[in-house]
Amino acid sequence: MKAETEVISTLGKWGVIPVVVIDDAANAVPLLAALSQAGLPVAEITFRTPAGSEAIRTAVDAGLTEGPAPVLIGAGTVTTVEEVDKAVDAGAQFIVSPGFSRSVVERCQEHGVPIVPGAVTATEILACLEMGLQTVKFFPASVSGGPSAVQALLEPFGSLQVIPTGGINPDNLATYLNIPNVVAAGGSWMVPRAAIQSKDFARIGALSEQAVALATAIRQD
Question: H/E element holding 75?
């Protein structure tokens, strides 16, 4: 199992994290292959649908997390201890939760799998820090104050690392990535659910290439 620091460092290399809603686990391998070929070998496969855990298992069994060009696969929208167990059993390399749950964090720590919980208030951030976590998901970003809220929260928590998610798109990506301590931003614009359902992986590849190019340009400014 990868350490938290290794996972967060890897996520930071790309600047954007595809947040995937998948309805058919059979689409997992071609989807992740399209992302990898576009230079974005990472995905947060959410548990918003029943296919989430099986999609992760299918990709892991296909060997996509191994070899010279491994894909980093996480499980998102994990809200219960049972879902943690299911995600780890499927082969998820990191866990993302929309909010903070002590029981969910504790189970992840028991498994030794990195967890990025949601936190949008100082109280939630303190709860995460008390459990030894250094990275949180600011979600839903767009309706929780946006970039200005992220900046304000980082004032008293200088060592905190943040992954904003929710309402992020190419038009506002720079306003988040230009904030110190923002590791990366989660988004679904490069992996539209309709495109996954219709198996339009060429479109997903093109959108992902654009996302990588944009994130790279922002970080180089």
Answer: strand 72-76
Catalytic residue status for 2 = no
- 196: tokens are 């996954």
Q: pLDDT (tens digit, 9 = 90+) per residue, 167-179?
A: 999 999 999 999 9
Record the pTM. Answer: 0.96
Amino acid occupying residue 127: A
Active site residue 106: no
Closest CA to 42 of 126, 116, 121: 116
Distance CA 178, CA 118 (A): 20
Kindly give the residue spans of alpha helices, DSSP state H, lying in the chain: 4-14, 28-37, 52-61, 81-90, 102-111, 122-130, 146-154, 173-177, 193-197, 201-220
- Residue among 4, 54, 83, 137 flagged as catalytic: 137
Retrieve residue 11's tokens.
């996520």
Q: What is the tens place of the pLDDT at every residue in 38-61?
A: 999 999 999 999 999 999 999 999
Residue 5: pLDDT band (50, 70, 90) is: confident
List the catalytic residue out of 4, 13, 44, 130: 44
User: Residue 17 is which amino acid?
Assistant: I
- Name which of 94, 91, 96 is nearest 54 in CA terms: 91
